[in-house]
Write a structure and sequence with these properties.
InterPro entries: ATAP, ATAP_core_dom, HesB-like_dom_sf. One of its GO terms (biological process) is iron-sulfur cluster assembly. This is Iron-sulfur cluster insertion protein ErpA. Pfam families: Fe-S_biosyn. This protein is mainly β. It has one domain: HesB-like domain (Hypothetical Protein Aq_1857, Chain: A, Sandwich). The strands form two sheets. Strands 4-5-2-3-9-8 form a six-stranded mixed β-sheet. The chain has a three-stranded mixed β-sheet with strand order 1-6-7. The radius of gyration is 14 Å and the shape is globular.
Length: 119
Amino acid sequence: MSQVTLTKEAAYEVKDMLEKNDMAGGYLRFKVQGGGCTGLTYGMSAEDKKNDNDLEFEYYGVKLIIDQHDIPVVDGTVIGYKQSLLGGGFTIDNPLASLSCGCGASFRTNNKKGTPSQC
């Protein structure tokens, strides 16, 4: 089965964000869009409902939804969260990414090139 994983650290951060925004029962949407120097970019948003074509995964009480059309370019991806002295942020480890830009904001896979845009 296709899968995208949310680490424990990422799940707790998402859960905290959802609760602070009065969306404790909400979803984290993980998506892929065209753009960036190499053609594809990741996006994440809080949602209050899922769509018919969404796949749902649950990790540590957080419901993660992904459009089934995005799965071919993110299957096996691990979404993490790292904290440092300069702050924290989400990390995305996608084993299907064959190329990423220097700033790490966009990627492409062997099967999907996307639509590159100016940086």
